[in-house]
Amino acid sequence: MANLKNIRERIGSVKSIQQVTRAMKMVAAAKLRRAQINMSQARPYAHRLRDMLYNLLPQIDREALKVLELRPEVERALIVVVTSDRGMAAGFNINVIKQAEAKIHEIGEDQVDLICVGRKGRDHFRRKNYEIAASYVEFWSDLQFHHATSLGAEIVGRYTSGSVDQVLVFFNEFVNVLKQDLRQEQLLPLVVEKGSLIDTSDVLFAPSREEVVAGLVPRHLNVQIWRYLLESYAAEQAARMMAMENATTNAGDVIRALELSYNKARQAAITSEILDIVGGAEALKSAS
Predict the structure, then answer these.
(1) Which one of 5, 35, 40, 180 has the fewest beta carbons within 10 angstroms of its own beta carbon?
(2) Are 115 and 107 a contacting pair, CB within 8 Å?
(3) What pLDDT sits at residue 194?
(4) Are strands 166-176 and 112-117 parallel, antiparallel or unpaired?
């Protein structure tokens, strides 16, 4: 009977865990819906702004703005790692951390400044004794645009001061509920990429192209960082929702297996008791 009691306790424990994982899945699903709305609103604007800026860059003197400088050699890089504050999201955090860590080793730890966005990344690199230049944590539940501008000011300040020659951002990009892509994007220096560029040959700029670009660049950088944060937050909720769904399903499988073991043990106990009774009756008959 002690065995039956242990199995009942295990079934109760697994059922409690299943209730928690089911609740966490529902919470992640609700957060994901809100995150998708914010992300879908930011994506078109960020891409359009990027394309317009990329189209104008070849038409101006880049030396007019310090943030537009192209460094001939990358002597020092700034790596920004975007993770979450919480776990229970399958490989969401560890995958982006591994990719960033591989890049740090490729460049050389002594030639890298590290900014950690999210507690999981900060804690990992702190345990590994990496020198962390700055960290941003405990803001995901109230994510606002000013968080992006604050991070953007830190990044741009380091680039324009000449402390770093390149800025790389590692984050998870939301594709759909089942898929999140690891992304490595170069935020600075701004290098024209192939894309849907805008024809500005017949466009009049007032007061000038240079001043328009000077106004667009800080906005572009802040919007891109905002997009990174929104993408990462949506990807985190999707990863957690699927992880909790899998955990709930696995808990159900464990419960069924334990119930089967419980029924077998109970049947064995009943059979043993019946055999004891029959044995006792036969002993009484023999004695009489």
Answers:
(1) 5
(2) no
(3) 60
(4) unpaired
**How many residues does this entry show for the chain?**
288
Token pair for residue 220?
């572009």
- List CB contacts of 193: < 8 A, sequence separation 6 or more: 54
> What amino acid occupies position 255?
I
For residue 203, what pLDDT is reported?
Answer: 65
Q: In the chain, where do the E strands start and end?
A: 77-82, 112-117, 134-136, 166-176, 179-188
Task: Report how far residue 165's alpha carbon sits from residue 171's, in angstroms, rounded to the nearest whole number.
Answer: 20
Burial of residue 260, with CB atoms counted within 10 A of its CB: 0-12 exposed, 13-18 middle, 19 or more buried: exposed
What pTM did the predictor assign? 0.84
User: Own/partner pairs for 97-105, CB < 8 Å, 24+ apart?
Assistant: 97/121, 97/124, 97/125, 99/170, 99/182, 99/184, 100/170, 101/128, 103/79, 103/168, 103/170, 103/184, 104/79, 104/130
Per-residue pLDDT tens digits for 1-57: 558 888 889 999 999 999 999 999 999 999 999 999 998 889 999 988 888 888 888
Q: Per-residue pLDDT for 193 more than 90?
A: no
Cβ contacts of 108 within 8 Å, gap of 6 or more: none
What domains, with CATH codes, occur in the chain?
A: 2-19+245-287 (1.10.287), 20-244 (3.40.1380.10)
Model confidence band, residue 197 (pLDDT cutoffs 50, 70, 90): low
Is the distance from CB of 106 to CB of 82 less than 8 angstroms?
no
